[in-house]
Amino acid sequence: LTGSQAEIVHRPLPVDDRYDVRETLPSGLKLYVRHHEVPKGMVAMWLHFGTGSVNETDAERGLAHFLEHMAFRGSTHFKPGTVTSRFEDLGVRFGRDQNAMTSFDQTTYQIALPRTDPHAISEALLFLSDVAHRLALLDPEIDDERGVVLEEARARAGAQMRILEQLFPLVAPGSLIAERLPIGIPEVVQKIDSKAMKAYWSKWYRPETSTLMIVGDIDAPTVAAMAKLAFADWRPAGDVPTPQDGGLLSQGARRAAVLTDPEVTQADLTWMRAEPLEASTTYGDFRDWCVDRLGTWIVGQRLDE
């Protein structure tokens, strides 16, 4: 590389400057707000927590996903059984406009509002701030939702899931990734109670490792002020816990296996490479990422042909 090329390679990647508000609140919560008029008259919010199934213990397998369900089963400002109806009054459909997801290392709640009046925005912010630190997590509600969670697990327990359960230990041997599928295991989900759920929730749902993003046809400074007010009393409690290391290691040796299931109806040949995630912070990092993706895409196209 020439001197100028080396300088570019090591230059830090720029931060997207299209956000009207981008700041870290005193609590540690990161706030991003952007005015965007496509589509008109709508606004979407995401509250992201930096925790998922990898942070579970053996006695908590499935708890992070179960907790995600319980966020819709009652809190300080949304009594049990009222979340869906209150948001339906705002034109929000549960499952389409209001939903959540849990993965190995993150949990995210999202709301898409078909209107941008102060009442609708306040309701959405109130719900998300309740999820952060004002959930009820009542045992009767947990028992009611337990059947829903177990049924979701049963619905997924087809041939594809059974193949994945064989595949993960092969792709990521010795790692928590191979043992902590977010859906959990039924025998653990059956035993989860309010005490266990509150312990995980208070430990891992923290402002220092969370991000609130708001994008829509809004006045960004006004909505940012509303968000700060809604989350003003969410304060850090104790030291930030150290996240569990997923333990994904680079594997030097090639491995192969034939994975079968009685319900599989077709044969697939798959080649995979699993490596620890590396942060892209410089132009050089981003270039390497692009080259890797481009090479994988070229090989994929040839295999398709």
Verbal overview:
The protein has 305 residues and is α+β, with helices and mostly antiparallel strands. 38% of the residues lie in helices and 12% in strands. It has helices at residues 3-9, 63-70, 83-88, 118-133, 139-156, 159-171, 186-189, 194-204, 220-230, 283-304; strands at residues 21-24, 30-35, 43-49, 98-102, 107-113, 210-216. It has a six-stranded mixed sheet with strand order 1-2-6-3-5-4, with helices on one face. The protein is globular. The mean pLDDT is 93.
Q: Give the overall pLDDT as a whole number.
A: 93
Order of helices and strands: HEEEHHEEHHHHHEHH
Stretches where pLDDT falls below 50 for ≥5 residues? none
SS content category:
alpha+beta
Report the principal-axis shape. Answer: globular
Helical element count?
10
* Quaternary structure annotation: single chain
Q: Give the distance, in angstroms, between the N- and C-terminal Cα atoms.
A: 36 Å
